[in-house]
Amino acid sequence: MLLCAPSVHGIISVPFGHIRLLTTVQVNALCPDFKTILAYHGFTPDNYDFEQAVVGLAYDIDFALHEARSCFDISKTVFRRRPWELNSMLAVDLWLLPGLAVNTGVTFLYQKWVTELRYQKPVVEQINTSMSHTNAHIRVLMISDWNAITIELRLNAVQR
Fold first, then answer.
1. Which among 62, 113, 127, 146 is placed 20 to 30 Å from 107, CA to CA?
2. How far apart are CA 21 and CA 159, in angstroms?
3. Rounded distance, CA 10 to CA 105, Å?
4. 133 Cβ contact list (under 8 Å, min separation 6)
């Protein structure tokens, strides 16, 4: 049996683009093993080039999150491309600008997700988020008819 951590909250979008918040119980019902979901939808290393998806989305995330109004410190951002790690193909460490709260970064990220980063017609889109006062951990699974990727984002607040 697969379970999420009890502190995980998340959002999931339905194909028509609406986003709804999920309770912990609902998130726990979602499968946290993204590799299994990818295989169920036909995305395996034998029949899909995950590296191309990782390179493309890394570029899109870098462009979207580091605009002039961004709440993230561009100089501290770290991208790790791991197309062979199907539960987390792209890992991104983001540092908030000094004085900003973690929820500011999560809100900014969700806004960018909806407006710029998500697939236009997702078949599956699962976003699991856990937050504290000093950081947030966001895991994303995105599948369309022709593309798929998993992402892990770590947002960190500057300690004073």
1. 146
2. 29
3. 15
4. 101, 102, 157
Global pTM reads 0.79
Q: What is the 3-state secondary structure (H, E, C) of 9-45?
A: EEEEECCCCCEEEECHHHHHHCCCCHHHHHHHCCCCC
In angstroms, the CA 124 to CA 83 distance is 19
38 token code pair: 């990818």
The bridge status of strand 148-156 relative to strand 90-95 is: parallel
Tokens of 16: 């028509």
> Which residues of the chain are modeled with pLDDT < 70?
1-32, 160
Place of tokens 């699991």: 128
Q: Tokens 């770290």 label which residue?
A: 78
Cα 65 from Cα 73, distance rounded (Å): 10
Closest residue by Cα to residue 149 from 123, 116, 110, 111: 123
